Amino acid sequence: MNKSLLSFLFFVPLLALICSGCNDGSGDQSDQKKNLLSGPLFASLTDSIHRFPNDAALYLRRAQLLSQNNAPQIAYDDYKKSWSLNPIQEAGLPFAANLAILGKTAERLELLRDCMQKFPENPEFKRLAGEAYIEEGKSKMALELYNNMLKKDSSDFESWYEKGLLLEQLQDTLEAIVALKKAYQLQPVNTYALELAHVYAESKNSLALKLCDEVISRDSSREMTDPFFIKGIYYSNTMQYNKAIVQFDSCISRDWKFTEAYIEKGVAFFKQKNYDEALNTFRMAGTVSNTDADAYYWMGRCYEAVNKKEEAIICYEKALGLDRNFDEARQALKRVKG
Question: Cα(111)–Cα(127) distance, rounded to whole angstroms?
Answer without folding.
Answer: 13
